């Protein structure tokens, strides 16, 4: 299923954005739990971590389970973008990948951007700082921006929040970016795997980093599953839009 416009009619009337995002997060968690995450990890959609912070999809590692194997059949490409940064000592997504050693701790997260994340400068800054905090703690992060009613560059804000200059190669508008934080206060590095999105085009597969291990996050497969769960079909949408079946 190619990417649809969920922010204009007919979908904004028939399938409100919050409902669809919840279904997409649930589909991502199902996909990750169906053999993508290594043994001992599991994913949760719409996880409420530490009070008001909600994560779209989270992954946790069960206590006492062995670490993931060092080698996996799937491996991502080298990062197209990499910038130096300094990771200060710490201080929060909406698929969250969490690791458990005794108490659960965040290992990686997937954020699905909403218009409210982009509609004013304070909201963009708050979102960027939330992502920066996750990266600062060594968490993998994927940010998906499929909002067609705004054109704010949330990814530039994330680079700024970690004290780095946003690369010119960041995709403007609709996009998905995977992030990985390396190093510490003196040798920090932020790596990024960016992909431009477009309505009517398939979605990419991006690496979701669990420490030194990457697993594939198939956005197209999870998106198609969410559309099927909610009975979103292109022919039905054309009929609702008055353009024929």
Notes on the protein architecture:
It is a single chain. This protein is α+β, with helices and mostly antiparallel strands and 245 residues long. The protein has one domain (11-240). 29% of the residues lie in helices and 31% in strands. It is built from seven helices and ten strands. It has helices at residues 11-14, 17-36, 115-118, 121-136, 154-161, 219-229, 234-240; strands at 41-49, 53-61, 81-85, 94-101, 103-112, 140-145, 175-182, 188-196, 205-210, 213-218. The radius of gyration is 18 Å and the shape is globular. The two termini are 17 Å apart. The mean pLDDT is 84.
Give the overall average pLDDT.
Answer: 84
Helix content: 25-40%
Strand content: 25-35%
Number of strands: 10
Total helices: the number is 7
Tertiary shape: globular
Radius of gyration: 18 Å
The number of distinct structural domains comes to: 1
Q: What's the helix and strand layout?
A:
Elements: H1 11-14, H2 17-36, E1 41-49, E2 53-61, E3 81-85, E4 94-101, E5 103-112, H3 115-118, H4 121-136, E6 140-145, H5 154-161, E7 175-182, E8 188-196, E9 205-210, E10 213-218, H6 219-229, H7 234-240
């Amino acid at each position: 299923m190619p990417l649809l416009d969920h922010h204009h009619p007919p979908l904004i009337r028939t399938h409100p954005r919050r409902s669809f995002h919840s279904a997409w997060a649930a589909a991502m968690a199902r996909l990750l739990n169906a053999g993508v995450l290594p043994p001992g990890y599991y994913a949760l959609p719409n996880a409420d971590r530490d009070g008001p912070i909600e994560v779209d999809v989270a992954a946790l590692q069960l206590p006492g389970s062995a670490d993931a194997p060092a080698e996996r059949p799937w491996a991502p490409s080298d990062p197209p973008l990499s910038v130096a940064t300094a990771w200060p000592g710490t201080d929060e997504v909406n698929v969250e990948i969490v690791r458990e050693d005794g108490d659960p701790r965040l290992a990686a997260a997937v954020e699905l951007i909403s218009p409210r994340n982009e509609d004013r400068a304070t909201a963009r800054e708050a979102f960027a700082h939330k992502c920066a905090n996750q990266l600062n703690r060594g968490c993998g992060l994927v940010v998906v921006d499929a909002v067609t009613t705004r054109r704010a560059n949330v990814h530039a804000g994330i680079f700024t929040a970690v004290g780095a200059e946003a690369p010119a190669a960041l995709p403007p508008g609709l996009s998905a970016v995977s992030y990985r934080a390396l190093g510490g206060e003196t040798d920090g590095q932020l790596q990024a795997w960016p992909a431009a999105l477009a309505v009517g085009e398939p979605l990419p597969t991006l690496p979701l980093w669990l420490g030194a291990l990457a697993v594939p996050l198939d956005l197209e497969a999870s998106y198609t599953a969410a559309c099927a769960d909610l009975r979103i079909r292109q022919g039905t949408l054309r009929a609702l839009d008055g353009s024929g079946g």
